[in-house]
Amino acid sequence: MDHETYTDVLLMQEPPAAQAGYFRVYALPSLLYAIVYTVCMFRNSSGITMPVWILATILYACTIQKKTSDVQPKTVRKTKIFGNGWYEIAVMLLLGVSTCLTDNAYIIILNHVGFFLLLILFLMHRFYNDSQWDFVKSLSEMSAAVFGAVGCMFLPFTDGYAFCKEKNIRKNKTLRAVLIGVLLAVPALLFLGFCLVCADAVFRVMVERFLMGLRFPVNVVQACLMLLFGFFSSYCGMRYLSRRRGLHQSVQQKVFDPVIAITFTGLLLLMYAVFCGVQIRYLFAGDMDLPQGMTYALYAQRGFYMLLFVCLVNFVLVLLIRRLFARHKVLDAMLLLICACTFLMMASSAYRMVLYISVYQLTFLRVFVLAALGLLALLMAGVALIIVRPRFPLFRYSMVVVSAAWLCLAFSHVDAVIASYNLSHAAENPDRMDWRYLSGLSLDAAPVIADYYEHAPADVQTQLQAGWFGDYVCQVSQAKKEMGVRNFNGSRYRAVQAFEKYLFAIR
Question: Cα separations (Å) of 227 from 34, 50, 99, 112, 234?
């Protein structure tokens, strides 16, 4: 869909009766959902209430969709797993379970991001006929849903006004106008006030003194803001989907002369062929002669990240060429050769990183990029399949592969694997052992670290107590103090159990 169509959607005028109807259907469920969201997630991003919030979100979305007028043509038959959103529901719930079983901050953040993206896909499945969308179309509609919801931020006010007029709540027109003005001014005051506070130090001090004089508990203010966010985000998101429901047809893309792509791809292949030959001879065959002044570790590290970037570029490039240019046998063969060169680059990247890890040990970033490299290889395989079989469902394949790979990583307790590998290789490279990094690992690594300390000699235990192990014990002790029923976390509970006998013995 082009930019003009999106603009028309946002500017589309709806009759007052329809606006009042939307408010009648959306307002109360959105408010109830906002309350559940605040209760579950207030200062609690990884507790046992995470799956509860996800389940509430799914129920809210299904309720709103059912109360809204029919948005799917009856003639459209969808697959039972993907079309109705059952796969997204299962993955979202698993992400919630994973979140309350880990203490890794990166995993927790990415779980929240993954849940948000899957929720958008789930809503599109429920509201639209997306069975014929290709990879690029699906991504563009996901982006449009996010920005479109932001563009509907004033609809709760207009819908509420239409609802009030329908109910003849207008005995005092002046009072009604004042209330509308106040409601419109609240978000403007908050945003512009924040800007002015950042702009002037004197004004900031005055505002701080004023707020302190009100004696509002900080928790109450934050909870109210979170409640407002939950209401407006849910209401506006559903309203955008309802406005877009009649405008989701696929758009025919322009098809360009394949000779252009053949020429462009041929030149790329010449360069890739030379590069791949170098990799086979010097890297994989072991006949490596580095430039003067460059260490092997530096060569491996720099080469990895740059090759990973090139692989990503190739992935996007092949998709764009397949979408914009007419099919041609020569072009298809060249694209398959680019895929083959990309696989070789991925193998080179993985080999470089493995060599680097063998010297400098594991970190979360190194594990993550290796996993991302493996995932990219699977996605590139899907791209190769779509070249051979144009009807191959690349987007659904990518969704399954990405979600499955991430769930494996999220449930694996990466920090425990890192601690186990690094501690088992500590004797091989003691000078390169980053003990400080171990102390900064999440509580997922607690059972491994406790086991290492328990089996260490007495003199080593004394040194550990005065160093990084003592810091880690303090981290576990703090987690024990903060753990309650609402923010219960499986990983933190296991850490407390593993360190129970050390919590009072050290510091």
Answer: 5, 16, 22, 18, 11
Q: Dump pLDDT digits (tens) for 60-74.
A: 998 888 877 543 344
What is d(CA 285, CA 356) in angstroms, rounded to the nearest whole number? 17
Distance between CA atoms of residues 442 and 105, nearest Å: 8
- Average of per-residue pLDDT across 183-192: 74
Task: Report DSSP letters for 90-104, one per residue.
Answer: HHHHHHHHHHTT---
Mean pLDDT of 400-415: 94
In whole angstroms, what is the distance from residue 390 CA to residue 314 CA?
A: 18
Residue 201: exposed, middle, or buried by beta-carbon count in 10 A (0-12, 13-18, 19+)? exposed
Q: Give 256's strand partners.
A: 325
User: What is the rounded average pLDDT for all residues in the chain?
Assistant: 80
- Report the percentage of the chain scoring pLDDT > 70: 80
User: Could you tell me how far CA 408 lies from the centroid of its own chain?
Assistant: 15
CB 46 within 8 A of CB 491: no
| 8 Å CB contact between 288 and 355 | no
